[in-house]
């Protein structure tokens, strides 16, 4: 997982420099947090920009009670979820249906048929299991890192991941 | 029928094929660099405050107007009831009945200004 800044020095930086520091150090992590949720590159870019606007707006009020990356991660996840809800509503479509359609039309996606099926199955999982699965499988995080990031016990995370994998395997068998 | 091991092997290979345009991360410019976005956010916030204040004022004004109207209406009803009570009481009576009523109630014509 990413390194945290020296908070004492970071707090003293002007906002523009703080944002630059975040972009230099966390851009890819934020991108790969958003991309598996919103699926397409174009949407990821839009959400990423929204996240940075939010960070610009709220960073001066951030109390550093939690780690900076945990705070950024929550903003990225919330912005992504809001984005897909809003887009689905605008297109008068079901969220999962809209995401699968976007993925199929994304020129920056090269998944084959079976990968598409996996995406569809992941979308059918409950949100918490989706999140744990994404972090473990796509972002290759350890349970310790996930526990720190989500504030959930390692045992609970292992259980969620185990159930998610079991469900995915079962569903893949029927495809 | 696929075997359990076959599915597990296949599953391990199912890494997503998300691609990113060349140089995307190197050339990324955050939206915060555009002051228009921040101004827009601040403006949005201000507009919401103005709109909310306006709505609160309109609702208070409406409540006051409504309360005044209600008060006037109650007064009118009271006046109307007072008038109609006296009038209806005597309108339907003959002169003899009026005198009888006044006697029973121990009232004089002057008391009622009749």
Helix/strand order of chain B, N-terminal first:
HHH
Helix count of chain A, per DSSP?
9
Shape descriptor of chain B: rod-shaped
Q: Approximately what portion of the residues of chain B adopt beta-strand conformation? A: under 5%
Enter the CATH topology name of the largest domain in chain A: Rna Polymerase Sigma Factor, Chain: A
Distance from N terminus to C terminus of chain B (CA atoms, Å) equals 108 Å
Structural class label of chain A: mainly alpha
Order of secondary-structure elements of chain A: HHHHHHHHH
Q: Compute the gyration radius of chain A: what is it? A: 17 Å
Helix content of chain B: 55-70%
Percentage of residues assigned to helices of chain A: over 70%
Look at the helices and sheets of chain B and give the structural class: mainly alpha
Report what the structure shows:
The complex is a heterodimer of chains A (175) and B (114). Chain A is an all-alpha fold and 175 residues long. Chain A folds into 2 domains: 1-110, Rna Polymerase Sigma Factor, Chain: A (Orthogonal Bundle), CATH 1.10.1740.10; 112-175, Orthogonal Bundle (Arc Repressor Mutant, subunit A), CATH 1.10.10.10. Chain A contains 9 helices and no strands. In chain A, helix 2 crosses helix 4 (68-90), helix 5 packs antiparallel against helix 6 (113-123) and helix 6 packs across helix 9 (154-174). Chain B is 68% helix and 0% strand. Chain B contains 3 helices and no strands. Chain B has helices at residues 4-13, 35-91, 95-104. The longest helix of chain B has 57 residues, at 35-91. Chain B starts with a helix and ends in a 10-residue tail after the last helix. Chain A binds chain B through residues 16, 19, 23, 27-28, 31, 35-36, 41, 49-50, 52-53, 55-57, 108-112, 114-115, 118-119, 138, 165, 168-169, 172-173, and chain B through 2, 4, 7-8, 10-11, 14-21, 24-25, 28, 30-32, 37-38, 41.
């Amino acid at each position: 997982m990413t390194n945290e800044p020296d908070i004492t020095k970071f707090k003293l930086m002007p906002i523009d420099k703080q944002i630059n520091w975040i972009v230099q150090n966390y851009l890819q992590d934020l991108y790969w947090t958003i991309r598996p949720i919103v699926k397409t590159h174009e949407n990821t870019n839009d959400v990423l920009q929204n996240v940075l606007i939010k960070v610009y707006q709220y960073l001066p009020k951030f109390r550093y009670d939690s780690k900076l990356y945990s705070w950024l991660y929550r903003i990225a996840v919330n912005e992504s979820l809001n984005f897909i809800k809003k887009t689905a509503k605008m297109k008068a479509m079901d969220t999962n249906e809209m995401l699968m359609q976007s993925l199929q039309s994304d020129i920056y996606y090269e998944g084959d048929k079976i990968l598409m099926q996996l995406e569809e199955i992941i979308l059918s999982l409950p949100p918490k299991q989706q999140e744990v699965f994404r972090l473990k499988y796509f972002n290759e995080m350890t349970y310790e890192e996930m526990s720190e990031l989500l504030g959930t016990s390692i045992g609970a995370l292992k259980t969620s991941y185990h159930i998610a994998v079991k469900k995915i395997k079962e569903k893949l068998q029927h495809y | 029928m696929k075997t359990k091991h076959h599915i597990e092997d296949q599953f391990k290979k199912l890494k997503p094929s998300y691609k990113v345009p060349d140089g995307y991360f190197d050339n990324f410019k955050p939206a915060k660099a555009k002051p228009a976005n921040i101004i827009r956010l601040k403006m949005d916030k201000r507009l919401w405050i103005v709109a909310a204040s306006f709505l609160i004022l309109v609702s208070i004004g409406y409540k006051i107007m409504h309360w005044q109207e209600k008060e006037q209406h109650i007064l009118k009803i009271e006046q109307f009831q007072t008038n109609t009570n006296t009038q209806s009481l005597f309108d339907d009576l003959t002169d003899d009945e009026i005198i009888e009523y006044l006697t029973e109630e121990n009232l004089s014509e002057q008391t009622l200004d009749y």
